[in-house]
Amino acid sequence: MSIIITVSNQKGGVGKTTTSAALISGLDREGKRVLGIDLDPQGNLGFCLGAGMANPHTVLDVMKGTVPVHKALVRCDYGDLLVSDITLSNNGLDGIRSNREFILRDAIKPVMDFFDYIIIDTPPALNLLTVNAYSVSDFLIIPMASDILSLVGLAQLKETIESVRGSFNPGLNVLGILLTRYNPRTLLSRDVLEMAQQLAGQIKSRVFDAKIRTGVAIAEAPAHGESIFSYNPRSAAVKDYQALIDEIAPDIHLKEVSQ
Known about the structure:
By secondary structure, the chain is α/β, with parallel strands linked by helices. The chain is built from 11 helices and 7 strands. 41% of the residues lie in helices and 14% in strands. The protein starts with a strand and ends with a helix.
């Protein structure tokens, strides 16, 4: 059975897609079978991993049941993907009344045993797509940019996590809050770290020791069709993402052993 990790924050511009792509390519480098699922209508995850933009089927087709999941998989250099596009923003899923929080789970069930890991990139919103991701996931990672505005709305995120735990997925575990665009030399980053640690305590989680510094390689890699690890492994930000993967490995291993 796959280990399913969702990367989520309802605020945009905090590094969700970059983090999702880093997890996918990083785990693939370790020889794991990885599926990436893009639930963001912007469709950037596929672009970051070299899947291109002209794909015959998307994750929406799979969720609506018009295409079986194995036919919608897009193979890239770093694993398999269920891509998305702008049609996901007006998806019609709200009209489904039965098990609507488990549409994604039911759609991908036929391939869950094939992959070691499934990484889900979510939209910058707390909507039905996000709840579907939470309902099927073992773990949640919350990226948060190191600025005050990124703290806005995290109370609502906390409520959503608690609601999903109470109603749909009691086993949902928040692996941690990931600080991005982090500069340890600034007072602002240190203040945000302190407030993030307080929030992490409220959701029974932590702030990761790994914190992602700003690095131009992170922005350049997708334009060159490469993962961040192959494009510039010496970049400080790339090293930070490797440190994140190393940090979460023990928690994930415990889940693997228990299955």
